[in-house]
Amino acid sequence: MNAFLKRAFQVVVVCCWVLAASTADGQLGRPEGLYYKSWAVVVGIDNYLLAPKLSSAITEAKAVAEAFRELGFEEVLELYDKDASQRRLKSILTEYLPRKAGRQDRVIIFFAGHAGTGKDMRGKEIGHLVPWDAQVNNAAKSVTLDDLKDFSRRVMSKHTLFLLNAGVSGWDVTPPQQLSLAGRLSPEEETDKRVVQVLTAARKGEALIRKDGQGIFVQSLLSGLKGDADKDGNGWLLASELGDYVKQQVEASSGDAQHPQFARLAGDGDMVLIEGKKEAYFAKLEPTTEAERIAAAQKEYDKAFLLLQQQRPAQSAIDRLNRALAFNPKFGDAYILKSYLHLEFLPDLDEALAAAELAVKHAPENPDSSYTLGLILQRRGQFVEAEKALRQALSVNPDYTDVYLSLGDLYAEDLNDREKSVEAYRRYLQTGGTENKARDYLQKSGAGELSRVK
Description:
Layout: H1 3-6, E1 38-44, H2 57-70, E2 75-80, H3 86-100, E3 106-112, E4 115-119, E5 125-129, E6 143-144, H4 145-154, E7 159-167, H5 187-191, E8 195-202, E9 210-211, E10 214-215, H6 216-228, E11 237-238, H7 239-253, E12 261-267, E13 272-274, H8 290-309, H9 314-327, H10 332-344, H11 349-362, H12 367-379, H13 383-396, H14 401-415, H15 418-430, H16 436-444
Parallel strand pairs: 1-2, 1-3, 3-7, 7-8
Antiparallel strand pairs: 4-5, 5-6, 8-12, 9-10, 11-13
Helix pairs in contact: 2-6, 3-4, 6-7, 8-9, 9-10, 10-11, 10-12, 11-12, 12-13, 13-14, 14-15, 15-16
């Protein structure tokens, strides 16, 4: 396999979550909908026992709880004031939800109250949420972000979302995820991927601004949950869309004084908050200018590579490549990858040949175009044509190691040309090749001194 194509098939090691045994182990199949059950824990604390009192945390939390019920959440647990003690909150995080929530469920935790910041034993700054019976600066009596991260590892829910009406920091996050549906898979495949996401009201230390008696973060959150965050208007609302919407709304409303933070803490999925019609999942404005079509094609091509790295079915990658080529019929690299997939993973030599010929036409400067064409022609028994194609690849890149190995194989196994096979294998080793079969062939052919090339 050539260097260009090897990138598509490198195995990505995915670190799986270690899940404790649970009564929810029976949730193994796909639910009829996107989730078996939806859980929400809503916390609002005004009348703190030890910390300064607040005025509207409970009112805002109750509005959020009602929004979750309107979204179809079957289990909405509301904890206000003394019900949100340290013991109760930690019991829910360490015992109740890990025991109750299943593998096909979604879980949201909303918190409105004080937040603080402390340091761990290594001096690293870490935020915490203040329960009803704790002081603002007492991290030991609070729910730290590490506690929430530990909860996200314990709970079996497929999708977990933290909505924190506070300015906290201290998360270790994965790279930002895309904020639109462009290039995504089907909704069922999205929910097959586990994810932990967080949306906070502000950066650490920023004041939470209020307008018309309500915090602007909660205002934006509630309007987003009613569907305003569905910016492409396709009827689907995902957590990433909500995070993007709330961030933009709050920053604009605050005059850029308050900055919500949205991040994916783990996993590759995206919580679905509003389920629309499947046929509308991909709904979006089609690119109109040439630049937009080229950019859209590149996104589909990149998605095809990602699917292969994730070891998803090759047909999924082919579908993405076909979408890329619909946007940009001159996308040579997409033809190269498509031809190779039809050669090795979804065997169809006619399709492979057609794609390879278009790759040579539209990407002649890429040696992989001719190289892949040569491999296909060899597989079809057209050995002379295969030699010509492989030689053309070398005319573009005279030091292409893998091409010399394929030429050596062609000469040795199909064209029975000892002299040319010796020369090809020799050049393979000279350009950095390490396959023992090249050295073995040279030794058996009486060219032993050539096999010592380093």
